[in-house]
Amino acid sequence: MKVIIVGAGIGGLATGIALRRKGHDVKIFERSSLLREVGAAINVCPNASQVLAQWGFDFKRSRMVTARSHLRASGITLQTNFTATYPDFASLYGGPWLMAHRVDLHSELRRVAVDPEGIGKPVELVLQAEVVDYNAENGSITLRDESIHYADLLVAADGVHSSAIRHVVGHPTPVVATGWAVFRWLIPTEELEGDPEIASLLEGPLSVQDVTRSRTLSLYMKIGGPMMSEKISNQPADQGQGGAQAIEDGAALGEIFAGVQDPLTKDEIHDRLKVFEKVRLRRVSAMQILSDAGQDRVFEVRERAQQYMPEGVKVPSNQQEFWDHNFGYDILADTRCHLQAYLKGLASH
């Protein structure tokens, strides 16, 4: 199957890797030159790291460190007000909880995608190729240079501002401001170690070894509300699952289009994409809603989130339940289960 992916971010590269490994011909169009990638720290949670490991992703090459503990301190007094030591997530959920610099994660995904030694045909990465139009009916994209490119499957992985949305649903879906903003920055570790007021925060439950391996510490401050400059949130209102969900998306598409024989009809592609929607809609919707409140204020979103939880499963209410829900999910197994149900239905007709 010939596949075009628009966007070479985490989601686009992950999708390219998953589909090349299943024998598909994949081409990614990226409008940038990928020469000045930026970013800060990113979670690579167990539900994502176990997938990456199966794809031949090199965690050492990408300089990832294992999340071992959590510390929260007052920004005014620098006094620690919360600490926690993490369990061995790899033994619990099949993969470690890792921290990475976004650029390192992206670079290793790119390497795996285009590596000629990998499984399947290497992904063809086309840079400085801006997509200006989609045709969902005939499976084509148009670049700014007016060239038209066709594929059996188009995957839009170019972010929340993608123009592909209106071609699929018939109308644009504008991005809505939340009223919150996050300021993130990186500080060289040695600058903190040399400050007597801050150095103590790198001792005890926070693993100095892990911090100093990357030589940088990632920090963030979240502010928001009507008086944005006056309100600072002590509890992050997100699940740290953005990158992980993009990796899950790619993994699901790879499994759904595994073992297919060319040529695929439009109807079969369409039916398999319905399976993708069944796999992803509830999982991603629940995760997004749960990200609207901190884990200590889940009661604010419980009713909305419950409608997307698996049958018979309640919305998480404590740290262990959140770990089980977020980290304990196996995207590969779940997708294969849905795919088998779909194939069984075909066989019965």
From TrEMBL:
This chain belongs to the protein called FAD/NAD(P)-binding domain-containing protein
**Where would you find the membrane-spanning parts of this chain?**
none
Which family does the record assign? Belongs to the paxM FAD-dependent monooxygenase family.
Instruction: Report domain FAD/NAD(P)-binding positions.
Output: 1-156
Q: Which domain of life is it from?
A: Eukaryota
Q: What is this organism's lineage?
A: Eukaryota, Fungi, Dikarya, Ascomycota, Pezizomycotina
The record ties this protein, via PANTHER family, to: FAD-BINDING DOMAIN-CONTAINING PROTEIN-RELATED, MONOOXYGENASE
Q: Which GO terms describe its molecular function?
A: monooxygenase activity
Name the InterPro entries on file. FAD-dep_Monooxygenase_BioMet (IPR050493), FAD/NAD-bd_sf (IPR036188), FAD/NAD-binding_dom (IPR023753)
Matches recorded under Pfam families: Pyr_redox_2 (PF07992)
**Does the keyword Oxidoreductase belong to this entry?**
yes
Annotated keywords = Monooxygenase, Oxidoreductase
